């Protein structure tokens, strides 16, 4: 999961609700720097176990470059809430939410230059939205650390925990089990402990996420078909961005996907599955370069 470097909001960022035709969603809304030319807007969609805070470190550099940036909690994630039914989190439902969010942002900010980015699972969701509802209102599509189909078999082992245990285990107990596993990995040097403020946030986010959302999306990660050929036919500029290492979708898979899509490809040095949090300055620079090239065409 992405780990922001801080939770304090920049002065130009507000936490609010985005009202859409499919309900109300919690968002972080970053206003563009009024001292630079306005370049458009972007909707940022988080991945499995994630939330809008995954993009906190990107908001300052992206808004400083002249973009309005809206990071969203999807249905059932963190502060958006959602029903206790797996059917509510079918990929088609989540994709329709993204389309509605995009329409609401486009209407509110009167922009025809609205970019969409999906991180990890979020990439599959925005892909499904574009395939179901077409390229409008998007100016471009970015798939960040999001692969062509299901995650690797090794990654499915941990993902399957949500499917196997959450139906009969409360979220607090599941959190404690994951903490124990992480502590064992830390003892082996595999992971580093989070500072207290971050651990508290990750815990709060986990227990406030609807378990049925995690179960349904875990199934999606393990069964997603390859839809790259379909997406390649959609007339949108595309960017495939990742770190140098990815445990969910190996980097060679992402390289090949970019070729099949005819997409721009960026590999962020020093980053792994969450370049948004691990190398935010470099990631923001790549996004600004791509979005600017699209809007200036």
UniProtKB/TrEMBL annotation:
Residues 43-286 form the AB hydrolase-1 domain. It comes from the Bacteria. The keyword Coiled coil does not apply. It holds the Pfam family Abhydrolase_6. GO terms for molecular function: hydrolase activity. The keyword Hydrolase applies. InterPro entries: AB_hydrolase_1 (IPR000073), AB_hydrolase_fold (IPR029058), Carboxylesterase_BioH (IPR050228). This is Alpha/beta hydrolase.
């Amino acid at each position: 999961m992405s780990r922001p470097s801080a939770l304090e909001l920049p002065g130009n960022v507000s936490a609010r609700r985005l009202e859409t035709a499919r309900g109300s969603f919690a968002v972080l809304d970053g206003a563009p720097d009024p001292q630079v030319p306005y370049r458009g807007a972007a909707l940022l969609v988080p991945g499995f176990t994630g939330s809008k805070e995954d993009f906190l470190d990107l908001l300052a550099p992206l808004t400083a470059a002249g973009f309005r940036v809206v990071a969203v909690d999807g249905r059932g994630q963190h502060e958006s809430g959602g029903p206790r039914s797996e059917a509510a989190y079918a990929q088609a439902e989540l994709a329709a939410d993204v389309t509605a969010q995009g329409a609401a942002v486009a209407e509110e900010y009167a922009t025809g230059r609205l970019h969409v980015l999906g991180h990890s699972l979020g990439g599959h969701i925005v892909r499904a939205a574009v395939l179901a509802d077409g390229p409008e209102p998007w100016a471009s599509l970015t798939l960040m650390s999001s692969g062509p189909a299901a995650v690797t078999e090794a990654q499915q082992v941990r993902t399957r925990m949500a499917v196997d245990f959450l139906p009969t285990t409360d979220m607090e107990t599941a959190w404690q089990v994951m903490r124990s596993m992480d502590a064992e990995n830390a003892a082996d040097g595999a992971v580093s402990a989070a500072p207290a403020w971050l651990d508290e946030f990750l815990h709060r986010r986990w227990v406030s996420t609807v378990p049925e959302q995690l179960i349904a999306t875990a199934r999606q990660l393990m069964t997603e078909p390859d839809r790259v050929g379909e997406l390649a036919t959609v007339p949108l500029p595309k960017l495939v961005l990742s770190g140098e290492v990815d445990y969910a979708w190996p980097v060679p898979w992402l390289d090949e996907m970019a070729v099949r899509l005819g997409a721009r490809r960026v590999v962020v040095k020093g980053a792994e599955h969450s370049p948004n949090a691990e190398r935010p300055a470099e990631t923001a620079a790549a996004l600004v370069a791509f979005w600017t090239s699209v809007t200036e065409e």
